Amino acid sequence: MSGRATVLSRIRRALADVPPDERPEDTPVLRDYGRTPPATEPAGLARLLATNLADYRARVHRSAPAELPGLIGELLRAREASRVVVPPGVPAGWLPPGTARWVREPDELSLRQLDAVDAVVTGCAVAVADTGTLVLDGGPGQGRRRDTLVPDHHICVVRVPEQLVASVAEALPRLDPRRPLTWISGPSATSDIELDRVEGVHGPRLLEVVLVERDDTG
Fold first, then answer.
1. In what order do the strands lie in the sheet with 133-136?
2. Residue 119: in which H helix or E strand, if any?
3. In angstroms, rounded to a whole number, what is the distance separating the alpha carbons of residues 136 and 144?
4. Which residues have CB under 8 Å from 34's CB, separation 6+?
5. Burial of 112 by CB count in 10 Å (0-12 exposed, 13-18 middle, 19+ buried)?
6. Among positive and negative, which fits the CA dihedral 44, 137, 200, 193?
7. Structure confidence by residue, pLDDT tens digits, 17-59
8. Phi/psi of residue 82, each to 5°?
9. 212 bridge partner residues
10. What does the alpha-carbon distance between residue 143 and residue 81 come to, in Å, rounded to a whole number?
11. Alpha carbon 84 to chain centroid distance?
12. Are 139 and 182 in contact (CB under 8 A)?
């Protein structure tokens, strides 16, 4: 018996007692597992997120809401960013006036033009402390997936504690699987057969994450 036949026979045995007219949505799958967080206190989760992001070689910054425009300006000046993508929905209060040339309609850019951009500033949908992961779903202030994968420098703002969860199991109920989800843990990186690490192959070479305790800037 071939491997394919073996797998199909096991599936048929597993479905033997299922009524022929039953649909997958008729039997909901419980997804309440793994909901006990390692730390429920927001400050502890923020520290865990920062530690795990740093392990992936992301640069993590802390900011009060009023300090955010100044910090973003400093990060862009440090990279001499003169052309910056700002997706629709990014609060105006995040942006430092006169610091750089802001491109507010990235959807109008071709891939070649987007490749010439120095940086992108976005928010996120949720941040997972246990894995050091940012999740973008294309919502307001996040742009399309290409907007955060093509530019070499990504600055992502995380609102703490609103967007911070302990585990992936806690993040999933907040996300719509029909949306274009991008899961980011550090800058893009890969290794060859000799384990030489190369960054920036599939996305930004530099990821900077700004944790804002309370976002009332927009």
1. 164-165, 126-128, 133-136, 182-184
2. strand 119-122
3. 9
4. 167, 168, 169, 170
5. exposed
6. positive
7. 888 888 877 777 776 666 655 556 888 999 999 999 999 899 9
8. -110, -10
9. 63, 159
10. 19
11. 18
12. no
